[in-house]
């Protein structure tokens, strides 16, 4: 049985816990809930906390982490904290400023992992999604390789222990990997990944390059109206998943989490509900048979919940390619 403290070694020698706690919440959820949920997650045993500038709750998440350090539950080095560079900060001169602004909100000296959140560059400014008079996202022309060089400088400065990417496809990953003078490879690629979108080709490609795949929306999706097609199927209602949950005396969510762990994928579990936060740690307490893993592989339908169609006409839009 793999232990709840299991970590995976990244290609730069640092270690990442294989189960992470996601902190995104829709706008209508009070920010104070991120503080409480972060504390609950650390108490439940989570040591990997996944957050981002654009979630707009890093102050609360940082306070949650610091309060658990202050009460002796954990030390700073026990926590693996991820933040992300938003699309309006892709210009190389803005990368470090953005990371420093996250660190200031968190009141931490460094992040363990800093990711390029999404490969589509947008016009710098206060708006997370700068929109023109026609309701179109105002994009920016930035060479992501220059953004990556600025990320490398953040690592050299000790502001981020590791650097990686999120929502990159093979083409975009290769653009970074083949960059002349590349100093550090991305340690990971964080993407939507669940039994309906199992990303097997991207997973194989990442493994071949010693890049860890990290799964978000691993339990399907929060189904926020603004972003997700309300007619898309609910993953956790899937009859195969539910039958397997019965067989193992677990929840469908735990089957979905366990599936990723056994494929060598680092998986993020997001819940602000105390019972479910504790329950998600039980993904380490059972094992799926190879036959059942194959059955779960067979659920793949290439259903992507989060498509960010508003950016689809940008040359770096990642979801038009096969993988």
UniProtKB/TrEMBL annotation:
Keyword annotations: NADP, Oxidoreductase
Matches recorded under InterPro entries: AKR, AKR1C, Aldo/ket_reductase_CS, NAD(P)_OxRdtase_dom_sf, NADP_OxRdtase_dom
Protein name: Aldo-keto reductase family 1 member C1
Similarity comment: family membership: Belongs to the aldo/keto reductase family.
UniProt entry tagged with the keyword NADP: yes
Domain of life the protein comes from: Eukaryota
Family annotation (PROSITE patterns): ALDOKETO_REDUCTASE_1, ALDOKETO_REDUCTASE_2, ALDOKETO_REDUCTASE_3
Annotated NADP-dependent oxidoreductase domain residues: 19-300
Pfam families per the UniProt record, alphabetical: Aldo_ket_red
Active site (record annotation): 55
PANTHER family attached to this UniProt entry: ALDO/KETO REDUCTASE
Binding residue positions for substrate: 117
Keyword NADP: yes
A GO term, aspect molecular function: oxidoreductase activity
Coiled-coil ranges (or none): none
CDD domains listed in its UniProt record: AKR_AKR1C1-35
């Amino acid at each position: 049985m793999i232990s709840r403290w299991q970590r995976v070694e990244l290609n730069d020698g640092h270690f990442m816990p294989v189960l992470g706690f996601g902190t995104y919440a829709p706008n209508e959820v009070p920010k104070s809930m991120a503080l409480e949920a972060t504390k609950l997650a650390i108490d439940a045993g989570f040591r990997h906390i996944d957050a981002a500038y654009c979630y707009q709750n890093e102050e609360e998440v940082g306070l949650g982490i610091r309060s658990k350090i202050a009460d002796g539950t954990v030390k700073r080095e026990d926590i693996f904290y991820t933040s992300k560079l938003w699309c309006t900060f892709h210009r190389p001169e803005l990368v470090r400023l953005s990371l420093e602004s996250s660190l200031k909100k968190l009141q931490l000296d460094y992040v363990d992992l800093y990711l390029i959140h999404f490969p589509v560059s947008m016009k710098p400014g206060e708006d997370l999604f700068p929109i023109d008079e026609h309701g179109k996202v105002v994009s920016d022309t930035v060479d992501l390789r220059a953004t990556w060089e600025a990320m490398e400088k953040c690592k050299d400065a000790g502001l981020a222990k590791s650097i990686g990417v999120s929502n990159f496809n093979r083409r975009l990953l290769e653009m970074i990997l083949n960059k002349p003078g590349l100093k550090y490879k991305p340690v990971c690629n964080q993407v939507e990944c669940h039994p309906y979108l199992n990303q097997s080709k991207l997973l194989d490609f990442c493994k071949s390059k010693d890049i860890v795949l990290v799964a978000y929306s691993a339990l399907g999706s929060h189904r926020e109206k603004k972003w997700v097609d309300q007619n898309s199927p609910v993953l956790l209602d899937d009859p195969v998943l539910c039958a397997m949950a019965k067989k193992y005396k677990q929840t469908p969510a735990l089957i979905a989490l366990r599936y990723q762990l056994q494929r060598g994928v680092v998986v993020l579990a997001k819940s602000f509900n105390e019972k479910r936060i504790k329950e998600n740690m039980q993904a380490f307490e059972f094992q799926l048979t190879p036959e059942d893993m194959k059955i779960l592989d067979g659920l793949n339908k290439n259903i992507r919940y989060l498509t960010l169609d508003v950016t689809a006409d940008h040359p770096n839009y990642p979801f038009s390619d096969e993988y």
